[in-house]
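FORM 7B: Structural annotation worksheet

SECTION A. Query
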Amino acid sequence: MQKDENKKSIQDKIATIKYNCDSKPHLIVDQKKCVKCKNKICTKICPAKVYEFDENLNEVIVQYENCLECGACRIACAKNAITWKYPSSGCGVIFKNN
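SECTION B. Predicted structure
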């Protein structure tokens, strides 16, 4: 039985989004600034879970190919450690028209 569209979790909805991956990242994290950040808000605010803090490496791992291009990370980052730009033309998230 398929869930009603309004009752799906955000992760269920995100799983249906398609991407045309760029060969180069459009999100760049300044790890020197990032390491000084105590709360790593980017790992919490991103709905697509693009950012993950790796304690062994002591750095934020960026999975730019999952980015929804919402810009929440660049607004929330208190250290201004994220350089954010749109992917190259024809690349990035592909939103459905329903």
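SECTION C. Observations
Residues 30 and 78 are 12 Å apart (CA to CA). The longest helix spans residues 10-14.

SECTION D. Sign-off
Analyst initials: ____
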